[in-house]
Design goal:
Order of helices and strands: HHEEEEEHHEEEEEEEEEHE
Number of strands: 15
Radius of gyration: 55 Å
Strand order of the largest sheet: 1-10-14-12-11-15
Helix content: 40-55%
Number of helices: 5
Distance between the termini: 43 Å
CATH superfamily of the largest domain: Efflux pump adaptor protein, beta barrel domain
CATH class of the largest domain: Mainly Beta
Length: 404
């Protein structure tokens, strides 16, 4: 009895499993009749997403300013330009004012630097002249000491000679031994003796004077050395301070010139030029809260480095879409894609999945919990030639990817 009941339930369970499997795989393509049972087991799902046609090598033209700015003019969408043509201008009033202030500051700092350099040169010249003066002072003091020492030596030598002469005269007087006034030769000897004695006394007095002169000259030389050292230290300190001031003014001039360069560059960035020949389109930025997308126009405020214009590549096209997180595991790079442009219903183009972003981003408000990843589909050029279609950048389309 149990076997009979089990035999009745088993087919019912099998049918339920098949029904559940088919209901959970919406979009399954039904295999044509006449196929084998093995082929019937292969299920094909079709992933459908939306995308926008772009050039494969589009160029973005953005503001290079590091601060917000206001657009003063911008070319009309669809304008054909040549490389270097002005495509947009930004309000440059603040940058012109900044440039004027920076240039004024640079001129003032340059004048201060020139003055500081002149002071350094003057101190170096003074140091050289003072050095020459100090050399002359030292030479004069040294010469004074030498003269005083020579005078002292001469006085001592003369005193020694006079002492020797006096001894000789005294010996001669003793040898003659003639009473005073009795011999003219003796009178001459006595006169010579008195004269030599006086000269000896004078010489003896000159020796202390010479020694004093030596001491005074030595003291004066030491004072000269001290004075020279003090003046040299003062000039060296003044020179170091002046050289430090030159370094400071040099740094300030570099900062002022950097400010001038930054203001000049910002002023140049206020004039935006086309990087190449081609068609120019306005870059619209979608709002994360579902508001109307921002389209740049005269008077609009833009963020730093915000993209203003696009120059599409009209030779090679691709489609950029958003892949729902539920389909990440099914879509792979290299898979074939059927592309149907909304503006050309019924015309199918061929393509392949070119890339899938590694990082998912939240969806637009209010579906912020939804995660999507950008993926790119390249359009087959032969498919374009076969259909004789020239897509326009910005057209929306449907993307169908058959996955197994």
């Amino acid at each position: 009895m149990y076997k009979r009941r089990f035999g009745r339930v088993l087919p019912l369970l099998g049918m339920a499993v098949v029904v559940l499997f088919i209901s959970s795989t919406a979009g399954v393509s039904q295999p044509p009749r006449g196929k084998s049972s093995t082929q019937d087991a292969v299920l094909v799902l079709t992933v459908v997403e939306r995308g926008i046609i772009q050039g494969a090598h589009d160029l973005n033209i953005s503001s290079n300013l590091k601060v917000p700015a206001t657009i003063t003019s911008i070319v009309d969408e669809g304008t054909v330009v040549r490389k270097g043509d002005v495509v947009a201008t930004l309000n440059d009033r603040e940058f012109r004012r900044e440039l004027e202030d920076a240039e004024t500051q640079a001129v003032q700092v340059k004048a201060s630097l020139d003055s500081a350099k002149a002071e350094v040169n003057a101190l170096r010249d003074r140091k050289e002249s003072v050095g020459q003066l100090h050399t002359l002072r030292r030479q004069t003091a040294t010469e004074r000491i030498r003269v005083a020492e020579a005078a002292a030596t001469a006085s001592k030598t003369r005193m020694e000679l006079l002492e020797q002469q006096l001894q000789e005269i005294q010996q001669l007087e003793t040898l003659l031994d003639v009473p005073a006034g009795g011999n003219p030769g003796r009178e001459l000897i006595e006169t010579r003796l008195r004269k030599t004695s006086i000269q000896l006394q004078i010489a003896e007095l000159s020796v202390p004077t010479a020694s004093k002169d030596i001491a005074e000259a030595t003291l004066a030389a030491e004072e000269v050395r001290q004075m020279n050292r003090t003046e040299e230290q003062q000039i060296a300190a003044q020179l170091r301070a002046a050289e430090a001031n030159v370094e400071l003014e040099t740094l300030q001039l570099a900062a002022a010139e950097s400010r001038v360069a930054a203001a000049t560059q910002a002023l140049e960035h206020c004039t935006i030029r086309a990087p190449r020949d081609g068609l120019v389109l306005h870059a619209s930025v979608s709002s994360s809260r579902g508001a109307e997308p921002f389209v740049p126009a005269a008077g609009s405020q833009i963020r730093p480095t915000q993209i203003l214009l696009k120059m599409p590549d009209l030779d090679e096209f691709q489609v950029v879409g958003r892949l729902n997180e539920s389909k990440w595991s099914r879509v792979q790079v290299g898979q074939d894609v059927s592309i149907e442009i909304d503006a050309l219903p019924g015309v199918l183009l061929k393509g392949q999945v070119k890339s899938i972003a590694d990082v998912a981003t939240p969806g637009s408000w209010p579906d912020t919990d939804l995660r999507t990843a950008e993926f790119i589909v390249s359009i087959d050029p032969q498919s374009l030639e076969a259909t004789n279609i020239r897509p326009k950048p910005g057209l929306t389309c449907s993307l169908r990817i058959d996955v197994r």
